[in-house]
Amino acid sequence: MFPTLKTGAVIQYPAKRKLQFVTGVIRFLDGTEQRYRDSPSVLHTWTIQLSLLDEQEMAALDQFFQENQGRFASFPFTDPWDGTVYPNCSFGADTFAFQLSGEMRNKAALTICENRS
Amino acid sequence: MIYFPQLSSGATGQFPITRQRMARTLVNQSCESYNVKLADPGAAITEWHLAFGELSDQEVAALEALFQAVEGQLTPFTFLDPTDNLLAWSEAQNQAAWQADPLLTVTGNITDPLGGTSAFQVSNPSGAILMLQQSIDAPASMNYCLSVYARSDQSTRVWLVRGSETTAAAISTEWTRVTSAGQLQSEAESINFGIALDPGSTLDVFGMQAEAQTAASLYKQTFETGGVYTNARFQSDALTITTVGPNRHSCELDIVNVEHL
Predict the structure, then answer these.
(1) Displacement of CA B196 from its chain's centroid (Å)
(2) What are the strands of the beta sheet with B143-151, ordered from one edge?
């Protein structure tokens, strides 16, 4: 499971959530168009920005990233807005960086993407 | 052994420190957003960005000497991650990284001071002092701090092993974080950290941590790798040092550890 902070939360403000459809559009010479679904359903993406984390919280995130080998593996992620569990999610990038600006002052940003099942 | 030097304070880095992990995943994406992924664990990279300010002549000379010795990004050196625990498997004493003396018994799943069950109990039923320790490939001459949480219903002390130095630390029935810090006069290219138990004693132990600095920071759990990187390199062939006055220098550098090189 995606690691939670010591407060029990997984995300801090400002938090972003993106819903992505894929729609194909064919435009004709007379200006009319035909639209069709190019994917079976919506996909979710969460952008998580974290600050003022302590070293243990950051170590847990770092370990989780390494266990998943970046965006390779998948894991269930609970949408912090509505509690829905999305069973097939991955990191959105192969990179995870954090900055330590003092003791118990870590910050990091990461993206979680829902995969098509 | 060529290694990244410590500052005169005993620290390896100054705040802020940035560390970045990079994996490599091959992704074949279909037009309907289905993905086929292939991991490439051998291509993993770890990077640090270190910014130093107010360095003395001696400190900047040590950095410059290292840079010249490794010829920029050409050859590797040992880098001790200033943000991590140097010991591997910090909560799994049954792993091969740990060496327990014969007759020493180690039992896991004990309630730990952070509210989990990751502590372990160590018993010495013999008539001699027995040790549980881990050796890391790092110069013994650097400043190190070993820290561990310990408690016991019967013993009043635990021995902390830091290289050739062994110091006794007082413990009680409550969890106490005990530390042993300092610098050894040794040219050895490895150093061992651990605990030693008096004959007949039993201890609960949690969160063993070694750091290349003079005091302990918050405990960090580690798994198969600790914070010792023996294949680190400078990321650039250039090192720029800015001097703003006598004995006042600053510089920024990037270090990268790539296992497949």
Answers:
(1) 20
(2) B105-110, B119-123, B202-211, B143-151, B176-183
CB < 8 Å to B32, chain A: 22, 38-40, 116
- Whether B158 and B187 share a structural domain: yes
A93: exposed, middle or buried (C-beta count within 10 Å: 0-12, 13-18, 19+)?
middle
Complex-level ipTM: 0.82
Cβ neighbours for B240, distance < 8 A, ≥ 6 positions apart: B251, B252
Query: Considering only CA atoms, which of B215, B257, B251 is closest in space to residue B59?
Result: B251
- Please tell me whether residues B69 and B108 are part of one structural domain: no
Q: pLDDT for A25-75, tens place per residue?
A: 999 999 899 999 988 899 999 999 999 999 999 999 999 999 999 999 999
Q: Which two tokens stand for residue A27?
A: 């435009």
Shortest CB distance from A72 goes to which of B22, B34, B39?
A: B39
C-alpha distance from B109 to closest chain A C-alpha (Å)? 19
Total-model pTM: 0.90
Question: Nearest CB to A70: which of B23, B218, B219?
Answer: B23
Q: Would you call A55 helix, strand, or coil by DSSP?
A: helix
Instruction: Supply the range of the domain harboring residue B67.
Output: 17-83+228-258
Contact B21 A95 (CB under 8 A): yes
Helix boundaries (H) for chain B? 57-69
Residue A110's domain comprises 48-114
Closest CA to B114 of B210, B219, B222: B219
pLDDT band at B261 (very low <50, low <70, confident <90, very high): low
Name every chain A residue with its beta carbon within 8 A of the beta carbon of B27. Answer: 71
Contact A95 B219 (CB under 8 A): no
Q: How far apart are CA A3 and CA B211, in angstroms?
A: 24
* Residues A105 and B22: beta-carbon distance below 8 Å: no
CB-based contact B221:B161 (threshold 8 Å): no
